[in-house]
Amino acid sequence: MKKKEIFLTGEGYLELENELHYLKTVKREEVMQTLKDARALGDLSENSEYEQAREDQANLEKRIVEVEYTLEHATVIDKTKEDGKVGIGSQVELQYEDDDDVEKYRIVGSQEADPFSNKISNESPIAAAIIGKKVGETVEVTSPDGVYSVKIVAIG
């Protein structure tokens, strides 16, 4: 089975580095203190606080491993070379067919996707359809909700 490539923008890479630092320093210390406090309560066999603290510790360590793996295996996308085409890291303005509104999106790797911040994954139907296209092109997007068209108004 082929491993899925991990793409990050420079900004996304820095955010993950900061998260890793926080998890290893601040969060790990908090969890260790919670474990110590729970142990001090006595009998560990019937200590729900201790069980919860152990679960929190396991989840924290799992997240640390995930972030370390992502940082180690990620391809950082540098969108400084402007070739006039949509790619990972591009800021795009799209106009939907039969709509005068223009929507702005930033194409990012799946690890960074945040629809509430208009950061869409390169694996999403709309991003997959527009990657490699230029301003002025109209593209058909096939999504679970059907097929629709978008026009690329601007690329930044």
What does this protein look like?
- The two termini are 35 Å apart.
- The protein folds into 2 domains: 6-77, Transcription elongation factor, GreA/GreB, N-terminal domain (Helix Hairpins, Orthogonal Bundle), CATH 1.10.287; 91-155, Transcription elongation factor, GreA/GreB, C-terminal domain (Chitinase A, domain 3), CATH 3.10.50.30.
- Helix 1 runs antiparallel to helix 2 (48-73).
- The mean pLDDT is 90.
- It is of the alpha/beta class and 156 residues long.
- A 5-stranded mixed sheet has the order 5-4-3-7-6. Strands 1-2 form a two-stranded parallel sheet.
- It has helices spanning 10-39, 48-73, 125-130, and strands at residues 6-9, 74-77, 91-96, 102-108, 119-121, 138-143, 146-155.
- The protein has 3 helices and 7 strands; from the N terminus they run E-H-H-E-E-E-E-H-E-E.
